[in-house]
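User: Could you check the structure of this?
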Amino acid sequence: MLLNLLAGIPIMLVCLLFQAIFVGICLRRYVRFRQDHEVFGRSLQQIALLALVMLLAMFGNLLQMAAWAGLFVLLGEFADFSTALYHSAVNFATLGYGDIVMSERWRLLGALEAANGILMFGVSTAMMTAALTDLIRHGRDKPPGSP
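Assistant: Sure, the predicted structure tokens are below.
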């Protein structure tokens, strides 16, 4: 169990770093775009802005899954990266299909990745909720008929 923690905790920290970077990028882009463009009341621009934030957040989550997959390959659990990435995505998203399982020696890493994934998806969801709330709130503040 200690070996699993020693292998998993550094990857969890890397994932936390990735998440912090992508949340920072998403929020900076959101604020900059909102300042440069009058998106309130313009549905298509609002949708594009939210889609961009979602895509960046999802890319950050995929990067984290790839980090876990790299660890699984490094530990010799999977011979190829694509299988490791599939297994990692199932763990990270907490699906738990069970069609591919890790050896008894490293299987605690799956639970660590699932805990990491649910937290990171929660942060992504909170970021999206904040952006959506901001768009709704500022859209309401505009007087009727204003651009």
